[in-house]
Amino acid sequence: MGFFQPDLPVVDMAEWSKGTRSERIRPMARHWAEVGFGTPVVLHLFYVGKICLYILGGWLIALCTKGIDGFTGVGDWWSEPIVFEKVVLYTLLFEVVGLGCGFGPLNNRYSPPLGSILYWLRPRTIRLPPWPSVVPLTKGTGRTPVDIVLYAALLVMTAVALFSDGTGPVPELDTAVGLLPVWQIAAILGLLAVIGLRDKVIFLAARGEVYATLAVTFLFAADMVVAAKLVFVVIWMGAATSKLNKHFPFVVSTMMSNSPVFRRKSLKRKFFENFPDDLRPGRLSRIFAHGGTAVEMGIPLVLFFSHGGWLTAVAAIVMVCFHLTILTAIPMGVPLEWNVFMIFGVLVLFVAHADLGLGSLQHPVPVLLLFLVIAGIVVAGNLFPHQISFLPGMRYYAGNWDTTMWCIKPSAAEKINKGIVAIASMPQAQLERFYGKDRAAIPIFMGYAFRAMNTHGRALFTLVHRAMPAGREDEYTITDGERICSTAVGWNFGDGHMHNEQLIAAMHERCHFAPGEVRVVLLDAQPIHKQTQSYRLVDAATGEFERGTVHVADMVTRQPWADDVPVHVLEGSDEP
User: What is the pLDDT of residue 198?
Assistant: First the structure.
């Protein structure tokens, strides 16, 4: 791995280019297994620097509070409830501006490194309302001045709260500084709710399932800390529940191969069954996966019910190490600040306020209702993943989320460049600008390898053969739906709900694709009670032309370069 240059696979371009897609993915997958994406060291340092700036920003914002004094006296004020409130809102602002999850080159964002605010303050960019046929005044997919004003108001109102003082002593929380004014929290939540009903992407980008839910607990005054503890427990245990599948070991092997901490190739190879021929997860990956799931499922209960002492201390150390493991791996999608925040939350809520528990609640009914709502969403998200994003469903990094693969002709790519109001160019054009037209195929296929290293990649690369007309596959460029989403709506983070039929229709409305110009494979996540995943094949101009299922067992037994997963057609014909 070079300091400035990426460590990409070395291949004979002339010979390699003659191979099938499967044959060309094979050396990329092997390279990923022992090197990862080959990110230059300077990029990892860039993200480390970003984390440091995030921490410094939160530190300085806390000091802008009356009664919170001393840059070096952090030990006197770090556990104040208002500091926790401000860190939550600061992180929400950090995310919704576009500086958090999905930022930069490790999320396929090269120029510029973020979208978000650059899109959401710009008219006529695409917005995706979650329930346009149900919620009044949300129809349409074009951003209007009203949407821009609402988004700007959210940024301003959040900034106002960050620089506000506390409302005075709250004896139940042992604070003389107090909490943020309730009206400010209510205003932020109201704005985010209205914005989310007009554009689900902004709500998801704000990581509303974490920070908005925690902001709701701020409305509970003295019960805030206990309610926030319950939110953390649901996040952890919900994520652990979603990892009770056959997909998660594949995530671990892929993530650890890309980790800058595990630098020795000999160690990275141990995460696989038998490098280089069998790149299914090996014993070490299974140990990491199942051990991590057990930690995430059990330790939160210990934290919640132990109320201090050595048991709380040990449990807190385990959870801090858990998040540090994810953080130091610098995973694709880069949810880095979220892991830093979760570590901070462990220390503030469960260590500094370990004495507060269910017996401390003054008004248990609102807290119970909040718990039932968010736990119910997690349950529904696991049972009906096609209906609920993997973010509010708490299915974090489980290897089981909705995915898409887009097959695009050059004529369609040209229409997208002309018809979509966007900041970033199409993914292939960005890569050609950085790597050159001839070498751009290498990072493109490294992206294919990343997708293929996850179980759903085997199904996606099988289904693209069915999506394109027989004998005409060379006419298309295969592009991951996340990259299309990044260009079209300004944010992406592994969620197929943002690049499904709704986005296809919005783009067709603007680009007027001809039949056959854009074909899309949509693969739903696996419901927790089934061993199949549903798929749909859609032509952007004419609509769905095939649907069916694939069996998880057929995906997990194949290699990353496989494109022969058995397909069970339910509707439509074999020939599109």
Answer: 98
